[in-house]
Amino acid sequence: MNKPLMLGCAAALVLVGCGKQGDSAATSEPAAERAGSDTLAAGLGDNARLADAARAAGLEPTLAGPGPYTLLAPNDAAFDKLPAGALDTLMTPEGRAELTAILTHHILPGTILAADIGKAIDAGKGKALIATIGGGTLTATRDGDKIVLADAAGTRAVVTMADQERSNGVLHQIDSVLMPTQ
Amino acid sequence: MSSRWILAAGAAALAIATPTLAQRGGGDNKGGGGKPAKADHAQHGGGAKPDRAGPGHDRAGGGGGKQARVETSGGQMRHAQVDRPKGPDKMRAAKPNRADMRENDRATARNDSKRDRVRAEKGGDRVRVADRDRTDRDSLRLDDRNRDQFDGSRLVRFDDDERGFRGLANGCPPGLAGKNELCLPPGQYKKLGSVLPAAFASRTLDGAYSQWYRDDDRYMYRNDGDYIYRVNRNGGLIDALFPSADRDFSYYPVGMNYPSEFDQYNVPYQYRSFYPEGGDYDYRYGDGAIYQVDPSTNAIQSIVALLAGDLGVGQQMPSNYGAYNVPLGYRDRYYDTPDASYRYNDGYIYQADPKTQLITAVISALV
Q1: What is the pLDDT of residue A175?
Q2: Is residue B174 classed exposed, middle or buried when 0-12, 13-18 and 19+ CB atoms within 10 A define those classes?
Q3: Does pLDDT of A117 surpass 80?
């Protein structure tokens, strides 16, 4: 659990100066100090494929930085729902731009707890729109006692484990990968 | 499969900035809900920055015009004019797959294929009506017309029977039509090392940018709708520029070089203590992210922060900010009440009027 995302740099503070050239995991010392050690990046121990994807997209320093962000973290099974070979393709240099866009569709500005989403759903009479940091919009609804997030194409991701608070935001586990557009 | 996926679309506080950071919107060109993002108004103004939209909308890149290369040598900036007739396009082209990434949005905007980049806000939603064809400036003029209605800052005239501007070509005098938004002659537009055109003087930043890039004793920042210009007060020369509205759900992927024409330290104000100038790495802002750049190769190594750029004093709270998102450490001070609601964005907490959804103040800087 909580296996650090940055390989070779176990703790966030250690990330600083992990390697100057070519080490995309490195972040600045002030940013790492501000973020603390229990970052979103460090909280992806149960999300190995997401961690790999974040690493490929060069987004680890964002998840290890000050934030705060709300990370909708597709679990490994969620990635299994993608077409065969899709993730591998996205993680190639040619696929990075697309991968980055997809991942940023799972990052929300600020700290949004499940209860916050629930209140917004109630205020919206059953539906709430949620901005992603990447510029998209997700639609939140309830399904029984679960919160469901849907992308523009209607793909539904159920929040399977909510409110994993981190030092630089909060992480919600979801069971599907959401796409910015259909 | 990939092409089908492509997109359309700090908690710990150094200090709680005083509410004086708050800038009241509205009036005297300092705000005004629902203003098109390209509208101009005075510094610290509000103005909508509905850069992003719900699914199906997109934003186009900048226009043409000359660009210049800026080189750094021994810590001193040098400015060398470089003719680059399609400079901004070069930057776009440098983004792998970017054109493809917009394909879905393009489908949406295709019906308006001659429309220039236009951003508007409707009912608090972030709406982008975008296109990237710059072959016809008419639509931009139409947008300018709307902008004029909002803040009176329009600088460009256009054909308009009612207003008696018939005879201008694309809103510009003959010979200057389509050259640029301000109808400036070639050579007086978007050039590093040149004097800021007088027409830009009043074009202060709006929306989130008014917080991110503040005028100070050394620099002032101006915007022409496509680019932000950093002007050195000592001499009044443009010494940096970068796209102001180039986000389109696309980021520079790691591995590519940060565009040389924008290669100046331009990290938004609130993040500068974390990503300073002059360290082992270069940090550059662009397209909604702060990038870590290898100084020796200019290659982007990672994305160190993501910014939304959604909120600004004087604009309507976007409808997709319905969920309370204030960082945990600030919730005891900034919680929603019948009289005020609070939302976080890019290092700041914004206060809005729950009834009107107008963002009335920037309360705190968190980073």
Answers
A1: 98
A2: exposed
A3: yes
Q: Do B305 and A65 touch (CB under 8 A)?
A: yes
ipTM of the complex: 0.88
Residues of chain B with pLDDT below 70 are: 1-190, 245-249, 365-367
Comparing alpha-carbon positions, the chain A residue that sits nearest to B367 is A66
Q: Which residue has the higher pLDDT, A76 or A25?
A: A76
* pTM across the whole model: 0.67
Instruction: Please report residues of A whose CB lies closer than 8 A to that of B51.
Output: 135
pLDDT band at A88 (very low <50, low <70, confident <90, very high): very high
Q: Which helix (H) or strand (E) holds A119?
A: helix A114-123
A58 and B249: CB-CB below 8 Å? no
Domains of chain A in start order, with CATH, are 12-174 (2.30.180.10)
| Residue B257 contacts A where some CB pair is shorter than 8 Å | no
Residue A143 CB neighbour total at 10 angstroms = 10
B93 in reach of chain A (CB within 8 A): no
Q: In whole angstroms, how large is the CA radius of gyration of chain A?
A: 16
Domain residue spans of chain B: 10-365
- Compare CB distances from B305 to A62, A111, A136 and report the shortest one's residue: A62
Q: Which element (helix H / strand E) includes A115?
A: helix A114-123
To the nearest 10°, report the CA torsion of A49, A53, A56, A57: -170
Q: What is the token pair recorded at A167? A: 């030092």
Question: Does A2 have pLDDT greater than 70?
Answer: no
Strand runs labelled E in chain A? 69-74, 107-109, 128-131, 137-143, 146-150, 156-166, 169-174
Chain A residue closest to B1 (CA)? A86
How confident is the model at residue B247, as a pLDDT? 52
Contact A28 B104 (CB under 8 A): no
**Would you state the pLDDT for residue B245?**
67
3-state SS class at A76:
helix
CA distance B21 to B41: 17
Q: Is B234 on the interface with A (CB under 8 A)?
A: no
Best mutation target among B306, B316, B321 (most A Cβ atoms within 10 Å) is B306
Q: Dump the DSSP string for B316-361.
A: BPPTTB-S----GGGTTTS---SS-EEEEETTEEEEE-TTT-BEEE
Mean pLDDT of A120-134: 96
A140-153 confidence digits (pLDDT tens): 999 999 999 999 99
Give CA–CA dist B155/B362, Å, rounded: 29
Q: What are the structure tokens assigned to B235, written together?
A: 């001499």
Q: Which residue has the higher pLDDT, A82 or B30?
A: A82
- DSSP 8-class letter at A53: H
Quick check: A98 and B101 CB within 8 A?
yes
